[in-house]
Amino acid sequence: MITESIIQLLVQNQQLALRVGDRIEPNVIKPDSFFPAVYVSSYRMQKMPCDNGNGVMTGTIEIGVYSTSYAEAAEIMYLIRTTLDDFSGFINGVGISILNGEQTADDYDEEGARNIQVIEYEAFAQISST
User: Fold this and answer.
1) What is the pTM (predicted TM-score) of this model?
2) Which of 62, 76, 122, 124 falls between 20 and 30 A from 45, CA-CA?
3) DSSP string of 7-61?
């Protein structure tokens, strides 16, 4: 549910939607996907020890950009960062607070057909019943 909420938030960024269309996928980019494409994955989500029964989870959100050019991947990553850095709000009944992201090393595939940029965010989430 957290992954889907992050995807919904990214889709609302019109500039990002113009660049990647509906190619924002949960967890992985499929081998036959058109580029540019984005994946969103949440992992290590666990209940906070000091939660007191409120259902607050903490964990990591990983977002990857696949593109045929480095410049395009960097531009898409910039749009993702403008959407998610320091975000706090509700999306589809999930309250989410996201800290600033930390980009990992850039990568590319062996044939040079795609560039890959990845960013990781520490996030807090709480599913609302209202």
Assistant:
1) 0.82
2) 76
3) HHHHHT-HHHHHHHTT-EEES---TT--SSEEEEEEEEEEE-TT-TTS-EEEEEE
